[in-house]
Structures are given as C-alpha cells and as structure tokens.
C-alpha cells in the first residue's frame, strides 16, 4: 500500500467532509500511446496522486486521504482483493476521522465488487464506486468528471444509509441493480427494470428513490472468511453436461446457471445439475437475458429439482451472493432461497 496522499482546502467556516479514496486500477487509471487510442491501453498504470491532480476543485468538496490499494485490470480481480477491500472499507468507516469512502475501479467487474461491498460493508456512511470507459490519456476522458461526482456524492449527507452506490455518467446507481451494458459507451452502466437512484451534477446530488432490500448494516453476510468455489455455466442450444460434470468432480460448492429466458435450462444440462444437487452442490438458476427476473418454480420446478431462483440478480451477482451464503454456513436449499429472496 502506498503512502497516503492528502488534498485539503484552505480553512473554511464549516469543516469539509473527510473522504477516503481507495484506488484499485482499471481504465480510469489507464494509459495509451496517444490521445485517440481508447482501446489499446494498459489499465491501472496511473497512480492515485495523478488521478487526483486531473480533477480541479476536489479540495473544495472534501478533504481526501488517498490510498493505492491495487493497480490491476479489473478483469483480473482476485477474491483475496475483495476481502481486502471489504476489510479496509469497514476499518476506515469505523473511524471518526472518515466520513465516507470512494473507490476507483475497472468497469469489467465493478458491478460484482459493488454488490459484494453492498452486503459486506457494515456502516451507514457513504461508499461510492466509480470508473471510466476511456483511459486517462484519452481525448475527452470520462474519468475525471466521474471521480468529481463520486467524491461529491460521498460527501453528501443524502448518500448516508443508501448502501454502496455507483456514480457514473452523472447517474447514481444502487450496487444491487447496476450492470455494464456497453463495451464502449460512456453511459455503459445501467440499472435495468428498476432504474437509477438519482443523479449528481454540478455539485448537486438528488435521489429519486431508495434501495429497499437489506444491505450494509442490515446484511448478515460478511467477506471475512475463505471463499468457497462457486462457478457459472450457461444454457444454450446443444449444450452438453461436460462442464457441470467437470466442476462437480473438481469439488465446487456451488454452480450458478445462466439460463435462457426465465432461467430455463436445456434438458441435458438440467439432468446434470439435478445430479449435482444430489451430491451436495448448491445450484442457482439465473438468466442470461440481461433484465427481468427468474421466477421461483417458474421455468423449472425448483422445489422438486433442488434448485434456487436468483430472482432479479444476474448470474455474476448471483455467484457473489451464493458464495457469501455458503461461506456463512448456509447450505440447505430452503435457507438459500430465503437469502436470495432477502438480498
């Protein structure tokens, strides 16, 4: 971990909020050979001090204590870093010296990390994640404005008690709902079906709704224990059972299936997954569609087959929740379904 970098404003009548900034790398810290290059870049090569220097006006919003937690491309996110992030955020927010946390992250797995922290952080103080679709060296890089808005949001009292938030392209997303929907657009993150929580622009924060499901201090799940092996398989035309059989033989504890439509599963794959449940593997039905929900006992008889419905969670977030539940010792199918119905 690098030595903290501090930025603060001159004395003001009212003390500025104290925000911890945790940098993990990603495109927001990426660099390319020239300003017109938005694809052939290296992620995570620019340090947190340089990220801050690119955002004028931050010192008028908050006192920032910055740490370089990692410098990776988020496609390579390891589970150990998830645990490190959750522990560090909890430690920071337990201090009276910190009013909120901002995390810079790569876009590829941001939605997974955000949902993990949404369940594992135990504080009502604001936690805001942000990222960029264009590297820091690009013409019209979107990272600086996203970072400015993220700090503005974390410094706002309105963000308290809202769980982990994602500030991106002026919008405020709930960690449970947000997902990446474009490979290139600066509005790559959306909250399908449910919609955004609100917006942040020109130092103004406005929420239109709140997250209803339990999170943070109301979540009984943590990220402090060893991670069980949970994998994802997909259902598609002509799918075989090879992947499921191999995963069961390898000793996985859980399998999330990205089913078609309402979580429907090819008969061949369903047979293999049913056999997997008989061997103690937790199986969760999600959908590869991208929006909507997977109905309990809808496209498959979950109760009879021993499956769990992911509800509105996509396969990647369903994997996060299943891993946390299994790590907490929750294994019985009915109990697992209650976890998915709750969070």
UniProtKB/TrEMBL annotation:
Transmembrane segments: none annotated. One of its GO terms (molecular function) is asparaginase activity. SUPFAM superfamilies: Glutaminase/Asparaginase. The active site is at 27 (o-isoaspartyl threonine intermediate), 27, 107. GO terms for biological process: asparagine metabolic process. Substrate binds at residues 74, 107-108. Residues 230-340 form the Asparaginase/glutaminase C-terminal domain. It comes from the Bacteria. Gene3D superfamilies: 3.40.50.40, L-asparaginase, N-terminal domain. The keyword Hydrolase applies. Pfam families: Asparaginase, Asparaginase_C. Residues 18-211 form the L-asparaginase N-terminal domain. Keywords: Hydrolase. Belongs to the asparaginase 1 family. NCBIfam families: asnASE_II. This is Asparaginase. It comes from Paraburkholderia dinghuensis.
